[in-house]
Design the sequence.
């Protein structure tokens, strides 16, 4: 499950709208390095990138905004409806994303770091991790949070959820489960407890203080 001589890596995942950002934002506030696959995925298709040019050549100007950026909502609608299109896009982007993840992991300097990936298990990126956290919440809360946050219709969210592992499957693979069905305060309490346990376990790895 380990990778190279670097700080311990904690994989963070959960279904769409589960509350992964709350966990990563809280740990970042505690001073922990966060490697966020969603941010990396946006960066690899930034204006001027070879990946964005490939997407434009395949799908046309319709998936490009007036400012030259990728229209992720339009692309999502095209791709999630067709397995072959999903496969093509994954084959284009996943090697680029993985390469950047590895680069950022090698630069992590805190006692441990977080690798936040929506499809951590599905894309087998848990192989890069020392342990994994799953953020768990009800399907109803997932739909509500995702639709409010991303301005995506419910049917598209359900299609995204269908391509992810079920909560039961994710939880079986997880080393640690954060229950995000309660209040924000209750969730943060769990995160703080986890963080303190990790500091005690890996305090010798704090390169920033060395």
Sequence:
């Amino acid at each position: 499950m380990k990778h190279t001589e670097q700080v311990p890596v904690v994989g963070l995942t959960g279904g769409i709208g589960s509350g992964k950002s709350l966990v990563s934002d809280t740990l970042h506030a505690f001073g922990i390095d966060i490697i966020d696959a969603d941010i990396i995925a946006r960066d690899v298709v930034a204006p001027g990138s070879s990946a964005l040019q490939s997407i434009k050549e395949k799908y046309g100007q319709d998936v490009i905004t007036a400012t030259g950026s990728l229209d992720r909502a339009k692309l999502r609608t095209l791709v999630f409806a067709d397995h072959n299109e999903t496969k093509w896009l994954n084959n284009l982007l996943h090697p680029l994303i993985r390469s950047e993840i590895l680069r950022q992991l090698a630069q992590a300097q805190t006692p441990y770091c977080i690798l936040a990936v929506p499809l951590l298990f599905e894309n087998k990126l848990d192989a890069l991790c020392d342990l994994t956290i799953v953020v768990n919440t009800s399907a109803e809360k997932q739909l509500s949070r995702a639709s409010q946050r991303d301005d995506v219709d419910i049917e598209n969210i359900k299609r995204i959820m269908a391509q992810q592992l079920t909560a039961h499957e994710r939880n079986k693979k997880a080393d640690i489960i954060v229950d995000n069905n309660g209040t924000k305060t209750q969730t943060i309490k769990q995160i703080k407890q986890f963080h303190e346990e990790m500091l005690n376990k890996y305090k010798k790895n704090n390169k920033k203080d060395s």
Summary: The beta strands are 9-14, 33-36, 113-116, 131-136, 176-179. The mean pLDDT is 89. The first strand starts at residue 9 and ends at 14.
